[in-house]
Amino acid sequence: MSSPTIGVFDSGFGGLTVLRELLPLIRGAHYVYLGDTARLPYGAKSQTTIARYAVESARFLEQHNADLLVIACNTATALALPQIEAAVSIPVVGVIEPVVCAAQQRHPNADVLVLATSATVQSQAYRQHCEAHGLRATEKACPLLVPLVEEGWTDHHVTREVLSIYLREALETCNPQAILLGCTHYPLIASAIESMLRTLGSQAVVIDSAQATAAAVASHFDITPLPSTPPATFECYATDSVEKFRLLGSQFLAHPIDKVQLLNIGG
Ligand code: DGL
Fold it and tell me: Cα separations (Å) of 227 from 51, 92, 102, 230?
């Protein structure tokens, strides 16, 4: 396949962290991104609701000619991956297995701390994947982080204060060698997380699901970029606040998003 179309889905900005990692890996692709901003946060919702939202989004991306679908949302991956796979007929890559594999390769048999949304933690998906790979996981729900990132407060004293509370509480219960960022919004505050860990005396290494997932997606395609490979093209959809998505999204993606189209999906 010379120039694949790759569908990338998240509830909001978080999936852009996966897209950001994909751009240099699969250079000539056409990317169709969907941020379900009208119904965010997924992390505070039930399994039934998350599965319904995620399946609607996955079908939309398949109808927009995606050859492969990236569920760039840990919450949707944790609670709805089987339903999404059953709803579409293209390959689906979730975010949890890649990041757990990356952690296991770098830190075999380690104690890890998983930071994630409440729904992801309640699903125990990370705990099960970690156990299957010989890692001992402690999970910490960090429900305030997604709204702070969606507000654009990635470098803000309130975000640092919230992080210090969550990380202090988590480190009272474990002494991890690695921290798994189990939400695709969290790479946008990775430097704040790392610096807060050091302040609290932890030397744990931060591993994010975006990099690991992008590598897993790239392994589906046999593409050697040539100097003549054209740049990636984008089609970007959000279910609410398209102008905010264009402005903040361009910053988060570190690449201009020219236009975000409003999508009326579901209800
Ligand atoms: N980015 C999503 C994730 O990776 C979470 C955002 C939300 O709660 O909607 O879990």
Answer: 41, 29, 30, 8
**pLDDT, tens only, 54-99:** 999 999 999 999 999 999 999 999 999 999 999 999 999 999 999 9
How much is the pTM? 0.95
User: Is 236 in the active site?
Assistant: no
Tokens, residue 35: 């941020």
Q: CA dist 72 to 16, 183, 186, Å?
A: 8, 9, 12
The one catalytic residue in 130, 142, 174, 183 is: 183
Q: Residue 146 burial (CB < 10 Å; 0-12/13-18/19+)? A: buried
- Is residue 130 annotated as part of the catalytic site, yes or no? no
* 49 Cβ neighbours under 8 A, 6+ residues apart: none
Among candidate residues 58, 48, 72, 81, the one with its CA nearest the CA of residue 216: 72
Tokens matching residue 9: 């889905």
Q: What is the pLDDT of residues 13-62, one digit of tens each?
A: 999 999 999 999 998 899 999 999 999 999 999 999 999 999 999 999 99
Q: Which of 73, 130, 142, 236 is catalytic?
A: 73
Q: Using N-to-C axis directions, what is the helix angle for 47-63 and 74-87, rounded to 10°? A: 60
In the chain, the amino acid numbered 64 is H
Q: Is-contact 29 1, C-beta < 8 A?
A: no
Q: Catalogue all structural domains in the chain, each as residue range(s) with its CATH number.
A: 5-94+213-262 (3.40.50.1860), 96-209 (3.40.50.1860)
